[in-house]
Backbone:
């Protein structure tokens, strides 16, 4: 896709867009910030089919938002509360990165030392891998976990898989590039234990849980009986070695080998993660210098920046740079240093991927990131959206023709227009949502989903006749669409 605006014009337009949002955003008038965010989050839950969720926001070192939504246990209708625990999976690595920096501050480890200095029995090819490369996934080590199944590469005791992975060749030369794997954090966990003389879980509990006063958080997996732990769900499941998709929720059973607890082992609440983040910012674990080092992205051998820092992922988007952790395709947290803003989203749906909309949540506190600015949309949809903010959504067909005239390769995927329409719907811009979703019908008239979505928009707008009409069109194309059937029953009062 071509760039349609010069950099200078883009900056001017961005400033005007923020002003437009602040002055004319219909949702902003007469509603509290919490109510607006509640509506948006419930909309995201509906859109992605998330059974239960917790959200916390911290700003300038204080908790400013904490809410719980939906069900922790679907068959028994157990509601999510602020004390419900969720596995944070790989976001545990942020705790591990912090633990390593605690040892660095104590003078017990150096980031650029070779791992062999702190660990025994490493294969010769592994011995020059540094602590920093383990933390940033630039080590090139083979993975002890099968990425397709989520299970260890060898059955039996953890030690069997560890012996097996040490026989495998390097994936690439250390520092050459980035490739995510769990072996790095298995070794880091062993490093923490050998240097501290404590088990990894005890070191984290004493060094981070206790100082931050995390009253709910604990280690464990589906084998453990953990009070207040939410069930986990997915619309994808594995049967007889094959992954399948379902329109109905399936339970998820997760097993984290003991040696992989440094990679994915913590269960927590959004409130506890918020307290942990505030404690980290307050210097209760490590000082600011160490924190800045931890949040600095690694460099590959050729000087290019890696996407990860020490246990954390890093995104650089100008003044809105963020550091983040995510795990299990269902939990995520981000911190925006320039704005002193942290957002935590925990869900019980594997596949919810809250990292996809966490920046939009941040936008309720950072205006330029608000979803109504187009933030979070696919690039072509975002370009269209921003143009329509100036010209009006009734001109969507003409604006699209203009973009196509400038660039014959300009395309709007069906999913992107659908996401765009729902963003408008869930930020209270119903009439604009109807225009966008009508346009999706124009582009993809053979898709049942576009009629389903437009039906929902019309129902929200109070146009019962048009809603029924579009749900019926959906069912002609897809007779088994249960959502359309349910909505028609509701609309017809049956």
Residues:
């Amino acid at each position: 896709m071509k760039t349609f605006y010069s950099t200078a014009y883009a900056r001017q337009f961005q400033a005007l867009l923020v002003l437009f949002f602040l002055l004319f955003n219909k949702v902003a008038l007469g509603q509290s910030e919490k109510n607006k965010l509640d509506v948006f989050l419930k909309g995201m839950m509906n859109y992605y089919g998330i059974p239960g969720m917790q959200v916390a926001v911290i700003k300038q070192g204080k908790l400013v938002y904490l809410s719980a939504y939906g069900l922790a246990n679907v068959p028994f209708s157990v509601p999510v509360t602020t004390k419900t625990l969720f596995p944070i999976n790989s976001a545990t690595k942020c705790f591990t990165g912090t633990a390593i920096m605690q040892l660095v501050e104590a003078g017990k480890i150096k980031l650029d030392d070779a791992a062999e200095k702190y660990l025994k029995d490493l294969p010769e090819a592994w011995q020059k891998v540094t602590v920093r490369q383990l933390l940033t996934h630039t080590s090139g080590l083979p993975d002890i976990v099968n990425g397709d199944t989520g299970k260890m590469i060898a059955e039996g005791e953890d030690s069997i898989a560890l012996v097996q992975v040490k026989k495998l060749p390097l994936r690439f030369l250390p520092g050459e590039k980035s490739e995510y794997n769990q072996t790095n954090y298995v070794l880091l966990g062993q490093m923490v234990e050998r240097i501290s003389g404590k088990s990894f879980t005890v070191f984290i509990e004493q060094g981070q849980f206790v100082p931050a006063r995390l009253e709910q958080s604990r280690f464990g997996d589906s084998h453990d009986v953990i009070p207040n732990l939410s069930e986990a769900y997915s619309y994808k499941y594995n049967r007889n070695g094959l992954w399948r998709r379902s329109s109905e929720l399936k339970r998820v059973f997760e097993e984290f080998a003991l040696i992989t607890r440094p990679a994915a082992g913590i269960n927590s609440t959004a409130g506890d993660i918020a307290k942990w983040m505030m404690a980290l910012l307050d210097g209760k674990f490590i000082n600011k210098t160490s924190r800045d080092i931890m949040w600095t992205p690694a460099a590959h051998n050729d000087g290019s920046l890696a996407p990860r820092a020490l246990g954390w992922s890093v995104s650089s988007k100008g003044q809105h740079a963020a550091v983040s952790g995510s795990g299990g395709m269902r939990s995520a947290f981000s911190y925006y240093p320039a704005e002193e803003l942290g957002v935590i989203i925990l869900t019980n749906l594997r596949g919810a991927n809250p990292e996809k909309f966490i920046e939009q949540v941040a936008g309720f506190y950072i205006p330029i990131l608000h979803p109504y600015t187009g933030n979070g949309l696919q690039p072509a949809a975002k370009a269209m959206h921003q143009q329509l903010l100036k010209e009006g959504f009734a001109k969507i067909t003409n604006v699209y023709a203009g973009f196509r005239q400038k660039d014959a390769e300009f395309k709007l995927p069906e999913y992107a227009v659908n996401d765009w329409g729902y963003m408008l719907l869930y930020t209270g811009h119903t009439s604009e949502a109807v225009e966008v979703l009508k346009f999706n019908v124009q582009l993809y008239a053979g898709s049942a989903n576009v009629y389903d979505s437009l039906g929902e928009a019309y129902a929200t707008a109070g146009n019962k006749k048009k809603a029924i009409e579009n749900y019926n069109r959906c069912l002609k194309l897809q007779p088994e669409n249960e959502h359309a059937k349910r909505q028609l029953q509701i609309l017809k009062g049956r």
In short: The chain has a mean pLDDT of 91. The longest helix spans residues 7-24.
